[in-house]
Every structure is written in C-alpha cells, then in structure tokens.
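seq:
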Amino acid sequence: MSDDGQTSVKAPTLFRNYISFAGAVIVAASLASIILLFLIEFTKAADNPYLGIVTYIILPAFLTFGLVIIVVGMLVERRKRKRSPDSHIAAYPRIDLNDPRQRRIAFSLVAVSFVFIFMSAFGSYRAYEYSESVEFCGKTCHSVMKPEHVAFMATSHARIRCVDCHVGHGAESYARSKLNGARQLYSLAFNKYSKPIQTPVHNMRPANETCEKCHWPSKFYGAQLKTFNHYAHDEKNSLRQTRMLINVGGGNPDSGPVAGIHWHMNLANEISYIATDSHRQEIPWIRVKDRQGNVTEYYDRTKPLSPEQVSQAEKRRMDCIDCHNRPAHAYLAPDVALDQSFAAGRLDLSLPYLKREAVASLNQPYTTEDEAVRAIATSLDKFYRTNYGELYGQKGDAVKSAISETQRIYQTYFFPEMKTNWETHPNNIGHLYSSGCFRCHDGEHVSNTGKVISNDCNVCHTVLSDSARPSTVIKTLSVQHPVDLGGLADRKCETCHKANEPFKHPVNLGDISSFQCVECHSRKD
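struct:
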C-alpha cells in the first residue's frame, strides 16, 4: 500500500525494452550455437578448419555484443523513465540483501557471472590454442595458404606447428604475430596479397630459436650416405643410381673433423653476405671470420660491388635457413618428384616413356588445378591408347595408377591459382635446378689476395658408386655427367636442367636436333 492508501503498482524491470530484448535474442542464439558446436567438436563428428574459429572466436564475440546491447537497452530505458514526470527512479540502484527478492537476484547474478567468466576463460584459452594450430594457419585462408600448407604436409616437418618457427614463445611474440595477422587479414579481405607469397620471410625468427631446438649444431660431424635414383626419359625409364657420401661435418672440433658442409655453421665461424635480390639468390659479396679471428672478404669478379655499395648494403649473417630455405614448404621439380615415385614403386617402370610423358604433362602452363588434373589424365591416357594399344589393353590399371600419381604430384607441388611451383620458390639445398650452393661456390668469388671459394664437387660429396660406370674403381670416382659434354662441361647444372622448359642446344643442330645426346656426345672425335 502507498501512503495515500492506494495499492502501488510495481514498475516493470528496466530489461523490458526492445533494445534489451534484441540483445537477449543475440545472447541466446550465440550461447545455443556455442554449446552445439562445442558438442560437435567434443564428439569429433566434424573436421572443419572453420569450426574452432566460429566456436571460440566469432560466436563469443556475438555473445559479448548481445550482453552489451542488453545493458545499453537498460540504460536507455532508465534515462527514458527518469524523464517521465511520475517517475520514481533513484539516481542509483538501491541494493538491500535483506530483501529476499534482491537477494535472489544478487545470488543469481553472481552465479551467472561466474559461469560466464568461466566460459569466457575457457573460450579464450581455446581460441588462443586454436589460433596456434596448423589447421588455423593453413586452412582458414585456404585459397592463399594452400600451397604452403599442402607442401608442408608432404615434408618431414609436418608434425611441427607453424607457430614453432614463425611466431616464437612468449607474450611479445604472440602479440606481434597477431598484429601481423591483422595486416594479413586485411590483405586477404581486399585481395592485396601477392601471388606467389613472397619468400624468404624477412622477419623469420633466427635459426638458433627454431632449427637448433632439434638440430644441435655442435654435433654436425662425419658424412652421410645418400643414394640418388634418377630415371631417364627413354623408353625403358632406365635407372641410374649414384651413391654418395655427403660431407655434412664441420660443427665442432670436439665432435669430429671440422671439414664439411656444416663448417658454415661452426660455432666459431661467422659468415656474412650481401644479397642484391629479395630471394637471396644473387650474392656478390661474402665475408668470412674464422675461429682465429681472421677476416677474408670475397667479391664476385663477374659483377663486383663498389666499396660504397658494400658499406651501404644490408649484411646478413648466414644461418641454417640460408641453405635449408625450404625445410617445411618444399616444391619439388617434376623430375625429382617422379624419381621419388618410381623409387617408391608408385609408378610402373614397364610403361614405355612414362617418365618423359609424365614430365611433359606436368610442365604445361595450366591456369587452374582442375584444368591440370583433367589435362594430365587426357594426355597420358591418349599417349598409351594411341601408341601402345596392345599394352594399354593389358596394363590399363597401371596406366590409371600412373595418371593418379602424376595428378597427385601436381596437386602437391604445383598451384597455378597462386602462381606457385618449384621455379618461384627455388630450393638452395643442392644445385641441380637452381644455383643453390653455387650462389657462393661458383669459382668466381675471389678475395683481394687471390683466394677463391672452390667449386670442386668433391669438397661436399664423394661418389662411392655409379651404375652408369660399374667397373670404375671407387677411389678414382669423381662427379661425372652421364654423357660427354665437351666444351659445355664447365657450365652450371642449372644451365641445361630447366625442367619446365624444353632443352635448347647452344648451337643450331638442324636436321639432327631430334637425336639423343649420347649419339654425339659419346664420340671423342
């Protein structure tokens, strides 16, 4: 009862307004969706890269937005009622826990707040955890990151998370990566990203924080046996097998001899260089500081830099990633990928000219992956159906298997939509299809005292056997081309080994251009 004896009418709660109702609808829908998607993820009923983003990032944001809308609606309603002449709303809410109704509301509010805070904390952790996952990095922006993710899954580093190399540990690294992610999101939304994605990554963490967590540089010593299987483009897909000792030593004198490829990474040595291109393929200047403190500078005598250019240029200290530049995202050349498939038994050696035809089908300038898959199937099927009809009838399954394997190779290492393949991202390990080791070891880098960085093949590897020269005494073996190149023997491998281009002889051969190399290069006269 009121003071005048009339029954008082309780004013409706501030929640009763259209704005707060709209916020409540958003909260209810978001909460129901989060619970449903969480159950789906918990039961592993779905494997979708967007599930984690929606469950732990997008929907919680909508839930929070809905709560804000509820509060805004209540504030608007409060202001509206205060302007009414018969309003009895106090300046501040009256809280009296002795009132059973207020006490129930307060306890309910505390309980709901606790649940909300717990869910927010759990969701925030799961959002953080998911944003660090390989699925988040490789699949959420699948159209852009597809080449990196697919190639990554085909390497020996596929069980290492992307963030272990690209982000780093600690709050600072995490914050920096998320700020960079915001820029990448903008590039994706407004189609500002480059095709292909540019490498190397110039803000990549140093090797001592990534590679050396697993690969201990002081323990690089000795030599490793490696067998190279190369299948020819002839009718029999002939195998040439070369066994080499790769001199990988050079890490630490306490572990063994310091001579070998990893001499570059010896803890006591310091090698710096200047690259004149963004891909670090052109290196005209090198400085070497050995363990005794002696400093030697080498200049490329074919394109030397002036002292002013050397003093002004950015100098990079060499680390693991300068040679192992594709450790987790390697795009194999067609020749290499097919050799691996032959060696693994995924391609039938008895199919005539399979290596040649598969390489040719992989090297066509396709514009989309779907176009490439269809064209590879058509070209290989047509070749055997037309030229080897009887064999095609007998080995139709082998032909289909060869088509499937060739398509798999294309889908793993070629990405026409992003203009990405082995040519756009050369691998510096080796020197067959790109300069690689020969960026420095080309015989052209000379010091002021006349010292030359050697290009002798036997410095890095020793040939133990070569199936093309079975009778050769092992101790006298050296790296030798399968055919006599004559005056071309001093050329770099990459001069001729352009797998995406038809080979062009340095002179016009006229009518004999269709001959095999050995028909001329095996003659000594």
